[in-house]
Specification:
The structure holds two protein chains of two kinds.
Chain A (H helix, E strand, L loop, with lengths): L1 H10 L1 H19 L3 H18 L3 H11 L2 H12 L4 H12 L1 H13 L4 H9 L3 H13 L5 H29 L12 H10 L6 H16 L8 H24 L1
Helix pairs in contact in A: 2-10, 3-4, 3-5, 3-10, 4-10, 5-6, 7-9, 9-10, 9-11, 12-13
Chain B lengths: L2 H26 L6 H7 L2 H15 L10 H17 L2 H19 L1
Helix pairs in contact in B: 4-5
The chains are: A mainly alpha, B mainly alpha.
Chain lengths: 250, 107
Amino acid sequence: MDRARNSVSRKAPVMSQNTTRSAFLAGFRQSLPFNLVVIPFALLFGVLAHETGWGVLQAIGMSLAVIAGASQFAALQLINDNAPFIVVVLTGLAVNLRMAMYSASLVPHLGAAPLWQRALAAYALTDQTYGVSLARFTLHPEMSIRERMAFFFGSVLAICPLWYVFTIVGVVAGQAIPPEFGLDFAAPITFIALFAPMLRSLPHLAAAFVSVVASLALSFLPFNLWMIAAACLAMATGALAETLLERRTS
Amino acid sequence: MSESMIWGVILCLGIGTYLIRFSFLGLIGDRDLPPLANKLLRYVPVAVLPAIVTPLVLSPQATGGDFDPARAIAALAALAFGAWRRSVIGAILAGMITLYLGLWVFG
């Protein structure tokens, strides 16, 4: 269907440009509110980096190279605890392993785009840009590949620059944000907000339930590997529940 | 940790994370996935995010890992509102407003 749409849009470049632009703007607009959470999270990271004795260069270097808050916090915490180099790196990577699943789940939606676009999109694949884009692609399967990429990069432009800017502000200000503000909880709330609207079928509910239970039952696994193990079990549960439901209805 | 070791962490974590993100999207590209993979991948967000969130909700870092009613109720509010209204932003606002109310009541 994509290919068919693309060949049509090539004959009508003006219209295609318009829909691409509006997809980009939609991605940008829908992602802007996430900055309510991204900004305090970036500030917290900057402050923690400052308290660890890092300068602006190191903090912004990490935010540029990694752009993944949870793993940056984990790595910084371990450096503070004098953990060995390899433990710091492996823990950070284990926290980010979930992004391999994000990457795979975007293949049906973005796989047809040129390699350079996919390579660029991979850099900016975060919980927020992924969550917002996947919800949109699932809701609007008629979007062309160009529109999808435009939507994704609109989302990236709304979120990523402020991640960098407020990392720097956090290091420079270096002033701890009082815990009464409860900003530590902005990240969990965002994650809940990203998946709650997707709980729309029995298999989705079953997957989420197993995810919760397994994350607690497997918490003894080292290097935060419980995260990926719980996710795999939950995914299998969702697919199994879907198969069983199909059999019952057919 | 020495300065050069810190840059080593930043570099290794950055490159490793990029390769994780690039993996499937970069290497599979336009090829079709087997039907089973497609089925599994539909559940990625609801499989990954609840697992990350659960320990953060039940034993928040800010309280040193102790259960905190204000944070737990805020998480439930975000979940309920998000599932009911299907709105991401609505869920964030519901969660944060409930959190502040809860911190005010319990704090």
